[in-house]
Amino acid sequence: MRVLSADSVYPPHTQITLRTRLDNEIDNIQSWQHSGAEWQRLYQEPNRWESSGAVRLGEACPVYNCHGLTFASRRTQLYDSTTIVISKVLEDDGYTQVPERSTRVGDVVVYYDEKGEAQHSGIVVSKLEASVIMVWSKWGKGFEVVHSAGNCLWGSLSKKFYRITKWKYEDFFKVNS
């Protein structure tokens, strides 16, 4: 258990041990605070999100980001060289890219900018009759939201969908027969 000193208002940023299935370390940080200005902005933004059709879930939490929600069970932020980290997680954890039309509940979506940098990620939670894919993600430093896959806070980014298809050790390690 961490104990705060009497002169500390917030705990220091921390890290957890986080590894891929193939035992590669994943760089991360747990930020335990927002500045006053960040908290104020978070609570002013919901109207912008709601007007875009997103539904906010719960309260804001600074500890994890969208990639931490998608790939680290809401425990931390994946942040440094995000594209490299996300690529390593996708590869090491057995994800395979799937066409958008074949997307299913439980798949993940990663949004990329024009340079191919991973900017956002989320988990597919439903696919409606009209092929509208709904995603559960975390927008910015604050709130989890459910939104359509085509509605991203960061503008028009390209998106790719992934599904874990490699579950058995034989898929990862050469097995001697």
Structural commentary:
It contains 5 helices and 7 strands, in the order H-H-E-H-H-E-E-E-E-E-E-H. The longest helix has 11 residues, at 82-92. The chain is globular. The chain has helices spanning 36-44, 46-51, 66-71, 82-92, 169-172, and strands spanning 55-57, 95-98, 108-112, 118-127, 133-139, 143-148, 158-164. It is of the alpha+beta class. It has a 7-stranded antiparallel beta sheet. The chain has a single domain (36-172), classed as Alpha-Beta Complex (endopeptidase fold (from Nostoc punctiforme)), CATH 3.90.1720. The N and C termini lie far apart (47 Å). The model has no long low-confidence stretch (mean pLDDT 84).
Characteristics of this structure?
single chain; alpha+beta; 7-stranded antiparallel β-sheet; 5 helices; 24% strand
